[in-house]
Amino acid sequence: MIKKIILTVLGSTILGLVLLSFIDVYQEQDTKEVSAFTYALGNINNDLRDVTNLSMREKDIITATSKSLVSKNSDGKIENELSQEVKIKDDNIEYEFILKDDIKWSDGTQILPVQIIDFFKELLITEEEKNIEPILNIYGAREFRESNGNDNSKLALIEGDNSIIIRLNSKDKDFLEKLTNPVYKLRKNLDMWKDIKSYHDNIVYSGDYVIDTVSDEEIILKRVNYLNENIPQEINVIRNMSEEVSMAKFETGEVDVVVNPPSKQLNRLEAEGRLKTFNANKGKYIYLNSNDKGLDFESRKAVYKTLNNVIETYHKENEHYIEVAEYSYFLEDKKNLNSIQERKVQTAKINKELPKIVTLLALDTQENRSLCAYIGEWFKNNTKTSLRYTLVNEDEYKNIALRDRYDITLIDIDLSANNREKTFCDLEYWYNDNEKKLFDKENSKNNSEFRELENTLFSNYRILPLFFENKNVAISNKVKEINFDYYGNIQFTKLKNK
């Protein structure tokens, strides 16, 4: 009898140990899966309705909780998101988006073609015209907008068999690329996004995350329940945190991601393997004044050569922040060594000294303040020329009469590796009459790369590249990988644990 009791107790003990071992394994796996990433932002507006008015980091929340028909990765490649295939017909007039079979809202219901069409209709009625130019080119879109949505008879947004057909007024070879903009991320009940704190629980989301909690201190995003992907289950976004506090919390492990940490920390973070550097798709160009009161040709060449010397020195001290343009208007053009060498030789032939005084105009930003101060100090220490700079607000910056009183104007520009047309369109404001004619001529061609215009701008030393900007990200020891999309938004679905 005693032997049976002993055996029974022993068997129960062994069984208990076996069960406990299973529980421990399960808990360990569960802990790894329920990973939460924390990152800090400055102010986050409670109104997330109008995407174009949001900061880059506020748009992170939009891109985490919403998907679009097509998206663009960090390399500028267009990828399917809600769509699985796009058929383009009639020379870029008609686009048919075949939807994926498994796309769902956060409540588990299927995303239907008519719901995407309704979203586009809502944008057409409510969004500012300047923000939705691509979809205003849809046949019947302007009539629909002018009628406040009552005239639906001509609108060429057509529901197909698990597809959406869009027909344009005129061909647009870049229509797909334009649809990757975050403003076209699919969202229901747009008005609720005006007060995200009050209505986040009532919204259904098209993305991989939902807004679970909103307070004055943080916004918590949680992975959609039905997703079993190996992505973080929770994203904690800390609001209204200064750069200094963010870094302090980063060092103590309370924050996992800090975008653009202080420059004095970069070398240390890199040495520790906690720094990632990405191209930011932004650049700095200069406009050299060539009007009657501006610089003559040889002076413009001398100024540009000197500024390149400044930037080379600046790069050595700030290599994480910039990449020298090396006479290239686009980052990918730096691969063309022959062109770089030709322009370098061309610029080296200087027949005139710098003017005694050079004046510079720039938009008043913290970045420009630092850069202009650096350039001014470099001129003082390395040349006989005095550089005098002025920082102005946006209205003053756009004043042509003011601009024409300065020798140099700094130009901040968004660069598109796959869309040279957009860049040269953005520069149109700075063209003289001859350059404007050349732009119009090349712009009328299909697939124009604007090489003639670019070479004219460079050879006349009128509008020239200085450097390309980088984005730096401090990551905690538990983060293995972080990525950004083409527009600079964090791709939370690609965050990986170590």
From TrEMBL:
<feature type="domain" description="Solute-binding protein family 5">
    <location>
        <begin position="78"/>
        <end position="293"/>
    </location>
</feature>
<keyword id="KW-0732">Signal</keyword>
<dbReference type="InterPro" id="IPR000914">
    <property type="entry name" value="SBP_5_dom"/>
</dbReference>
<protein>
    <recommendedName>
        <fullName>Solute-binding protein family 5 domain-containing protein</fullName>
    </recommendedName>
</protein>
<dbReference type="GO" id="GO:1904680">
    <property type="term" value="F:peptide transmembrane transporter activity"/>
</dbReference>
<dbReference type="Pfam" id="PF00496">
    <property type="entry name" value="SBP_bac_5"/>
</dbReference>
<dbReference type="GO" id="GO:0015833">
    <property type="term" value="P:peptide transport"/>
</dbReference>
<keyword id="KW-0813">Transport</keyword>
<dbReference type="InterPro" id="IPR039424">
    <property type="entry name" value="SBP_5"/>
</dbReference>
<comment type="similarity">
    <text>Belongs to the bacterial solute-binding protein 5 family.</text>
</comment>
